[in-house]
Amino acid sequence: MAIATINPFTGETEQTFEAHTEEEVERRIARAQAAFEVLRETSFAQRAEWMHRAADLLEEDVEEAARLITLEMGRPIKGARAEVLKAAKGLRFYADNAEQFLAPEPLADPAAVGASAAGTRYAPIGIVLAVMPWNYPIWQVLRFAGPALMAGNTGLLKHASNVPQAALYLDTLFERAGFPEGSFHSLLIPASRVEGVLRDPRVKAATLTGSEPAGRSLASISGSEVKHVVLELGGSDPFIVMPSADIERAATVAVTARNQNNGQSCIAGKRFIVHADVYDEFTELFARKTAALKLGDPFEESTDIGPLATEGGRDELAGQVEDAVAKGARVLAGGKAPEGAGWFYEPTVLADITPEMRLHLEEAFGPVATVYRAESREEALRIANGTTFGLSSAVWTQDADEQEWFIDRLDAGAVFVNGMTASYPELPFGGVKDSGVGRELAAVGIREFCNLKTVWRG
Ligand code: NAP
Asked: Any idea which fold 4-233+435-457 has?
């Protein structure tokens, strides 16, 4: 894929960028290594000061950074601003908590191991390569970079090829904030050159957020290099509605859960599994509220749904819907790409999904919801767990026993009860099954890229 800003609202190429030469990539790796040698010697207090400054810069730059998001991937401007501010909050969270998360842990009874003192401490590991997607071009990157730099590591970013201006904005952010030169930089390279960077001995680990094929490729290279990897891959999250739920509220939240960020969120509710007792009521409300969403220019403040980020993504989604409809799915809302410029797709609700349909097993990366009827909680669970994905899940029920029953049995990295899945710096984030390995955010997220060092003193 060419490295270019292509406006999804018009389909016009705004700007193209030359990939970095091999010499430039080498220079950036060398600078990241030199920065690591400096950063590892700095105190948490010093890093925290720089990290807060980076958050200040983001807040000062909110309009410009949000404009880049909306321009390059079509996210409605209100959401784009919220993304930038959330990223700033994430940086502050790690500025304030990294030292405590990485505090040495002494063994309570060192005599048990024949020591006068023993325990563990967290040490930084060096350069971490981050391969990132376009769907949250600022937040997704900074939720990696915040903990990485606070731990004393340095970062190299290979951003998605369709968000180069976001990549270039992030390229200078940490240096502007005072971090040593080389602490965090972008590599403008195509996916085909990731392997060379990852095999460089100075690069100690990698994280990738993106599709399953990309994740598998990175994991196999990391495996052959014996390098640690964190993968945040796709999802097809269930959103279960049981009879005791507040149906009106569930339907309203379901619309947001499915259509946030134009439906291009890994943790979007994608499969809506509704108990037969409330199926008609829920689906009617869900379809009506979905159809009321306003499509349009993502720079308009009142727009709910902008264009999809890429033409290929829109065509893929249209193909999935066509396949389902041809095999008997019922369209309750939307169902097609509107005429005219821009890579729009109507917010869509499909019922009567069967296992032969692509949408039953594949992730729908756009504003398309599938609805399933379940006769019992057992059937709801079977449908929910019946995919290769396991990122997150949501269950709506007022019944405390039923809540526990689902929490224990949903095969997912998270369960949200009477709400929609969202990411918070305070809570771990990540999936099971084909949705990934490892966790981001919270204490566990910063520890992923540390050397957990055992210390024993005689
Ligand atoms: P993608 O094609 O996998 O791209 C993601 C990143 O990986 C881009 O930087 C891309 O570079 C790079 N890449 C692609 N193939 C690669 C390979 N073989 N080796 C190394 N790097 C490679 O993903 P996408 O389709 O743009 O993004 C959507 C996917 O991301 C969805 O499946 C979504 O669910 C998932 N996602 C997951 C999370 C999560 O936290 N779990 C969050 C957001 C998105 P190029 O752009 O140059 O190809």
From this structure: Aldehyde Dehydrogenase; Chain A, domain 1 (3.40.605)
